[in-house]
Structures are given as structure tokens and as C-alpha cells.
Amino acid sequence: MLPFNTIDEAATFIGRNLTVAETLWFNYSAKKSDYYLYFHNILFLFLIFSVVPLPLVLVEMIRSLGFDKYKIQPKVSLTLSEMFQCYKDVMRMFILVVGPLQLVSYPSVKMIGIRTGLPLPSLWEIVAQLTVYFMIEDYTNYWIHRFLHGKWGYEKIHRVHHEHTAPIGFAAPYAHWLEVLILGIPSFLGPAIAPGHMVTFWLWIALRQIEAIETHSGYDFPWTPTRFIPFYGGADYHDYHHYVGGQSQSNFASVFTYCDYIYGTDKGYRYHKKVLKKLKEGSKIDGAQNGGSYYYPTQDLKSE
Questions:
Q1: pLDDT per residue as tens digits for the range 64-116
Q2: Residue range of the domain that includes 239
Q3: Is 22 a domain residue?
Q4: Cβ-count burial of 145 within 10 angstroms (0-12 exposed, 13-18 middle, 19+ buried)?
Q5: Residue 301's pLDDT is what?
Q6: Res 284: pLDDT
Q7: How many CA atoms lie within 13 A of 208 on its CB side?
Q8: Is 267 part of any domain?
Q9: 3-state class (DSSP) for residue 71
Q10: Domain Fatty acid hydroxylase, which positions (predicted)?
């Protein structure tokens, strides 16, 4: 809740006229509690998990119209019923775990100093903080992910997420409830270290989930704008991790590729790509065409 009754009072406090964005923020948030604003995260997560994967569902249904060449594992085909079942499982986890966690975590958000007042952060401040959040989350997530691929972590927790050996957008948050809780820690560390405005926090939560949906899409589209982000892994990179499954000791990073490169956990993926390149150069296997990344279910290609 803002400590101002009018826009003029807010302008006097910050020493200038409010921007258009700040005026909109004042009109929306002035009489709303901070807890109510934080509660928006639940709505955003529900909308993202429900809406963002829908174009991928459509693409999966009309693969024969030219989209099949972008499918990373083209031999795998999912029915609408199977995808909807994945969505229902994710929503059950959302209702039973994610939603309640959001509701009870508000005190920690206030403790670290996430603010809701005026002025709003500048665009450059938002970009800088989001960059820090992505870097911190990516590094800490890398090590947690490696732990989850140990014998105990995989058998007791992480194997649930790997039930989808050819992932789809709805499967991004599909996981054991304990994994959902554990991986919430890396997502919270960035805002805890460099706290900003609630608007930035909203953007962080939204962008991180959209990124996860993209990397689990199962499609390697050449027009994806994230291709221009340095060291970004993308769908092809993470799809290999799911393809190998529980044996995987490669491609642990959630967003970028630098950790896997530094610690040598991308060797299996690089070997795999090298073999595929030789296969494609030698002959057209299974009708492979340019523009997509293709996996072939042979044990040799899984070796790391």
C-alpha cells in the first residue's frame, strides 16, 4: 500500500512528475496491501503454466504440416490426452505445493526488502537485476541438479521429472514435490542478494518459468529470439539431458551452458552432436532435413 493519497503527493515525495508507468502503478497499487500484490505471483504462475505451452500443443498436433522437421526427437509423438494429463499433474502440484508455498513465503520477501512503492525502477535497473538473478539461479541450480543425478537424489526425487524422456512445454514444472521446494531456493537467492521492486520480482518469476517451458518444448525453432543470448542452452541442449535420462552426467545447467563447459559436464552432448553431424554428412538418415536437431535411439549415441 502506498503512503500517498493522491498522485500530487507522490510527485512531491519523489521530486518530479510521475511517469506513465508510475501513474498506472499508483492507480493500481495505492490502496492494495503489499501482501495482495505479492499474491499476484500465484496468478502469474497459473497463467504461464496454463497458457504459454498451448502453442506447443498445437504444433505437436499439426506436426505433419511442416513442423516435424523442428522436432528434436521426431520419433516421439504425444497425444492430446497425454499432454493434458501432464497439465493436470502439474496443476495438482501447483494447487497442493506451489500455491501454499507462495502464500506462506511473504514474510521472507518483506525481510529481504522487496519494495512496492515509488519511484519505479528504471529499465536498466530491471535488466541489471534480472541478469544477476538469472546468473545466480543458473549457477546454484547447476549444483543442485548434479546432486539430484546422484543415486539417492535420482531414485528418490529427480526420476519423476525424467519420466518425460522427450519433454513437452507442460512438463517444465513436472517434478516430485520435494524437488519443487528445493529448486525454489535458487530462484529466491537472486532477489535475496539484490532485492528490487515487486515489478522486477514479478518479471523474474514470469521470465524464469517461460524460459523453462521453452527449454522443455521439444522443438528447436530457428526463429527463437533466445538464440541471440550468449551461452544460452535452449531446447536442443536440455532435450539431450532428458533423452539420456538417469544415466545423464551432461547438461545440468538450467539456462546457460558455461557451467557445463567449465566443469566438463557437456562432453556427452558435444560427442553426441559430433556423431550426428557425421551421420548427416554421410547419408540422410530417417529423412533428416536441415533446420532441426535429430536424436536416434541407439545406445552408442547415449554413451558419455
A1: 788 989 999 999 988 999 999 999 999 999 999 998 988 889 999 999 999 99
A2: 32-284
A3: no
A4: buried
A5: 45
A6: 55
A7: 27
A8: yes
A9: strand
A10: 131-265
Look at the block and give the residue holding cell 511517469.
19
- Mean pLDDT score, 238-251: 88
For cell 529448486, the residue is: 183
Radius of gyration of the chain (CA): 21
Distance CA 15, CA 9 (A): 10
Give the number of other CB atoms < 10 A from CB of residue 268.
21
pLDDT exceeds 70 at position 296? no
What phi, psi does 79 have (nearest 5°)? -85, 165
Q: Which three cell numbers stand for residue 90?
A: 502439474
Residue 25 lies in a domain: no
Closest by CA position to 204, among listed 134, 140, 104, 110: 134
Identify the residue whose cell numbers are 554428412. Answer: 281
Alpha helix locations (H) across the chain?
A: 7-14, 20-29, 34-38, 40-51, 54-61, 80-93, 99-104, 106-112, 123-148, 151-156, 177-182, 184-193, 198-215, 234-244, 258-262, 267-282, 299-302
- Residue 27 in any domain: the answer is no
